[in-house]
Amino acid sequence: MYKRKKSNHSDRSYNHRELIAHGSLEFPCGRYFTTLHIDSHKQSVEWHWHEELEIVCIEKGDSEVHIPGQTIPFREGDCMLLNANVLHEMTTSYTCELSSLVFHPTLITGSKDSIFYQKYLRPFIRAVNIPFQIWQNDMEDTAFIRECFYAAYNHMKDEAGIGFEFYVRENLTKIMVHLLRQVDHREIPNFSGKDISAVRIKDMLDYIHAHYATPLTLKMIAKVGNIGERECLRCFSQTLQTSPMQYVLKYRVSRGAAMLKEKNLSINEVASLCGFDSPSYFSQLFKRHYLCTPREYRERN
Q1: What CATH number should be reported for the domain holding residue 81?
Q2: Based on the domain organization, do 99 and 226 belong to the same domain?
């Protein structure tokens, strides 16, 4: 099953751009633990984006991280930093456990007028050609990244402790300084050509996630992205490796799986709330995605 454990932080929404703050205005950092399992209603962290930076470490199992136009293998023991405003998804072929910290750049820079933000963080988070950095388990500096990450992660557990915020900020700063030194000395692949498609996709996904329960057409989705239908098909295929309408159906089914946990809703009601006119079609698609019927899935969960 999918779990996200945290310490007094608001739930995260993967329906579209995350609008709920991670942590608080005074201390914008959230600590999370996630379990993904192929047999659960949450087989993936669905496509989403946020203005915060995110550092993720895999505790157990393997997964894949998808960003527009690229798939990154993410294995046990690896750590990854996802840059701000990067559209991303995470999937697993069976099961994996993840620890993560999501934090706003100003946590370590203070004011956006500071030299720390203007000289270092602002150029980094605006670099569309640096959507992520991965430290694989066998890399020389991964041990250092993990040490700093877990120092910050564990101090986040001690929210009543005096000065825990200093330790969290200190260790996240160490990671960012280490990363910025690496960026200065490596050849960075150019992802800028995919940036326009990513912006369009964000708008279209926001629309789908907000209106999935209503009738949707390719024309309606393309209009949101201010593009033609053919370009919409190309944009989805290039960025998400699927078609707009296939994405709509998959998203509706995933919402249905979540709703099936509400025992007061009948399967017919769930189908209707997810935008399906036909309960039998909902059941057919559900079985294709989850390898069981909605009724069997409800009994398991």
Answers
A1: 2.60.120.280
A2: no
Asked if residue 221 lies in contact with residue 68, where contact means CB atoms within 8 angstroms, the answer is no
CATH of the domain at 252: 1.10.10.60
* CB contact at 8 A, 156 and 164: yes
Interstrand relation of 44-48 and 88-91 (parallel, antiparallel or unpaired): antiparallel
Is there a contact between 57 and 97 (Cβ–Cβ < 8 Å)?
no
Q: What Cα–Cα distance (Å) separates residue 76 from each residue in 102, 109, 136, 152?
A: 20, 31, 9, 20
Q: Are residues 199 and 119 in the same domain?
A: no
Both 23 and 42 in one domain: the answer is yes
Q: Does 124 lie in the same domain as 22?
A: yes
Domain ranges, residue 88 = 3-184
The helix (H) or strand (E) run that includes residue 187 is none
Instruction: Clarify whether residues 101 and 163 are in a common domain.
Output: yes
| Same-domain pairing of 223 and 280 | yes
Residues 79 and 162 placed together within one structural domain of the fold: yes
Contact 47, 205 (CB under 8 A): yes
> Do 220 and 226 meet the contact criterion of CB atoms below 8 Å apart?
no
Q: What is the pTM of this model?
A: 0.74
Per-residue pLDDT of the chain in tens (301 residues, 90 and over written 9)? 333 333 333 333 333 444 445 678 789 999 999 888 766 555 678 888 888 999 999 999 999 999 988 899 999 999 999 999 899 999 887 889 999 999 999 999 999 999 999 999 988 988 878 899 999 999 999 999 999 999 999 999 877 678 999 999 999 999 999 999 887 544 444 444 445 677 788 889 989 999 999 999 999 999 999 999 999 999 898 888 889 999 999 999 989 988 998 878 999 999 999 999 999 999 999 998 888 899 998 888 7
